[in-house]
Amino acid sequence: MTRPTAAVPKPPDSAASAASAARSGPGGLLLWCLCDNAGRIAIAVIGGLLYQLALIGLPWCVERAVDQGITVDDPPATLRWAGVIAAVSVAAALGEIVLGWQSTVSATLTGNRLYLRLADRIGVLDEAALDRYGEGDLSMRGTRDVDLMRTWLMGFASFVTGVVGFTVMIIAILGLDPLLAVVGLACVPPLVLINTVLFPKWFGAANADLSAAHGARADAVEELLSASAAVRGLGGERALVERHDERSSHVTRHTLVTARVSASWAAASPFVPGLAIGVGLAVGGLAVLRDDMSIGGIVAFTSWMSMLVLWVGVLTLRLSQLSQARTAARRLVEVFATEPALAGPTNPAPLPVTGDLVADGVAVRREGRTILAPTSLTARPGELVALTGPMASGKTTLLRVLAHLSAPSEGTVRYGAVPLHQAAPDELRARVAYVPQRPVTVSGTLADNLRLGGEFSDEELREACRLAALDDYLAERPDGLETPLGEGGNTLSGGQSQRLALARALLRNPSVLLLDDVTSAVDTETEKAIVERLTSRRDGLTVVFATHRPAVLAAADRVITLEHAAAPAATDEERVSAGG
Ligand SMILES: Nc1ncnc2c1ncn2[C@@H]1O[C@H](COP(=O)(O)OP(=O)(O)OP(=O)(O)O)[C@@H](O)[C@H]1O
């Protein structure tokens, strides 16, 4: 394996658009969704208009057919009008197909892009930035919230055409009879009040509570699934089940509140035009008796008003979807607006391929407590530096600072004379690899877990397994690199997953390897093999190894012993108890 060159992977290109969506808030994100597939939405609106106009035209045709088409002296007129009505029905069907098809395709494509943007954003956030979200809550944002946006988008064209249809219909009624038009228009103010002021406010508030409850419940499910097996013997699963039950009851309560508001909204809107039909029938009926209006006219009026009842129902549904989408957009924008806790510099300094890793008076305080007392160390290319000390003395904390996964409260860390906070994050990741105490294994094969999206040949995978002393495991498996590891890698022993994580880090050919007690679960023979293979490399790999194990301490060029933060702070030299 050769040392990495200066080339580093580019960050996802959607980061910029995610940031711009965040800047313009939920409204900006909704607008972005509409613009993303504007062409298809426009075609859907055209299809929807054809559908609506054909539907509005039908009662008008029926009116003409009743008044002019059914006459004794002109039988062909009846057939003509029947043909016109059939043609209008075909136009309505075609329009509906275009509306439905294009709306579904555009909403699906945009929904997928939105999901990918969210996944990209989560991918660039570090642990500290993601700490404010629970894992379940975050997955709810990527599923339920994206789905709510998709549902709103799917109905958007039908909403636009519904509004246009509503307006055209009122104009049509106006042409029929001014008094009936007054009855139709009288519906508008109460409908506006119900659909844009009263219910969106109640429904929006209820839906925001429901989304938060879903997020909290998803966190509890996540804990129940991932932690209950570990605490079963201790009876701890009861507490997790109870927490899940409590959060589920919140979801139920908020679902009922939302359903109550939604049902009242759905009933209140069509009630208004329904009432107007009664009034219009009385007004129109009296006009017919006075001979001021034809029977066909009153048929057209009642048909249009019945249609209006249906449309108001549909528009109400679309408005409630908009209200849900606004809540979802707010939750998604929160994630887009989240910045990495350790944001990269605007003008990063280039990192050399090789150099000393130097910590200078690094200390960490959390919640008012010092968890790492001021510490200095130098690890030169090719050195194995062991880090030891009592439990909770800050070994992991120091390694995470050396990897720039968390920031020190005081002091600096430099690699090749460049302070870590001035380096580009991707370049830093390519130089410095951190293997945690409890490594993560994903579902998939051994090769999937080693590659994790990187491009490496099978030969390189085998060599990394050899260096990490995972070659015995590989040799024993008939499927070799393609051996499935089970869900979350649950077929591996603790020691095997530690060695897998070590192999994964070695594969990336870092200049510095930070190992957090990665031999704690392996036997002494295997540990000896790992240490020998790491130290026999002649390519200048620097290893900083947090450990209590005698074999590692014996092989180290230098041992640095940390004290508890409460103990008086010591200098680097005072702590060096072995080697250089
Ligand atoms: N994010 C955090 N917030 C608050 N305290 C923390 C945080 N991370 C670690 N600590 C505390 O800092 C102290 C040092 O933890 P650390 O894991 O660095 O010790 P360690 O020497 O690696 O321990 P061990 O040998 O048991 O692995 C502990 O008391 C721990 O509880």
TrEMBL record:
Regions crossing the membrane: 41-60, 80-99, 151-173, 179-199, 263-289, 295-317
Tagged with keyword Translocase: no
Superkingdom classification of source: Bacteria
UniProt-listed Gene3D superfamilies: ABC transporter type 1, transmembrane domain, P-loop containing nucleotide triphosphate hydrolases
Bilayer topology term: Multi-pass membrane protein
ABC transporter domain location: 357-578
Record keywords, A-Z: ATP-binding, Membrane, Nucleotide-binding, Transmembrane, Transmembrane helix
A Pfam cross-reference name: ABC_tran
PROSITE patterns: ABC_TM1F, ABC_TRANSPORTER_1, ABC_TRANSPORTER_2
GO terms assigned for molecular function: ABC-type transporter activity; ATP binding; ATP hydrolysis activity; ATPase-coupled lipid transmembrane transporter activity
Keyword Nucleotide-binding: yes
Domain ABC transmembrane type-1: 42-324
UniProt-annotated location(s): Cell membrane
A single GO cellular-component term on record: plasma membrane
Protein name: ABC transporter ATP-binding protein
